[in-house]
Amino acid sequence: MLKSFDEMQKYGKDHMDSTMKAWGQVSKGVQAIAAETADYSKRSFEEGSAALEKLLGAKSLEKAIEIQAAYAKTAYEGFVAQATKMGELYADLAKETYKPFEALVGKSPVAK
User: Fold this and answer.
1) pLDDT tens digits along 41-70
2) Would you say 27 and 93 are in contact if contact means Cβ atoms under 8 Å apart?
3) For the whole prediction, is pTM greater than 0.85?
4) Number of domains in the chain
């Protein structure tokens, strides 16, 4: 009985340690996602402002359409690239958050 209690106590400590490590990973991951989101927002705003300035300076309708088409193309490509990058960041966050618990699955005294 005492051995079983000690095992449960050790398992509880290991679980708490894993939880703290997981929260540390969550914190790092969320900070990386927030920084990437802020950078993309700033970059997107700057590119949109530059496109608007070019559009306002267009001398003809054809030039305005050309500027708008070029901006739409680059904005779409930038969005797709950013969506891919954000997907990777979220996937990495999930993997890193789960890692501390992988070792505990086989150690569970209940599973024995």
Assistant:
1) 999 999 999 999 999 999 999 999 999 999
2) no
3) no
4) 1
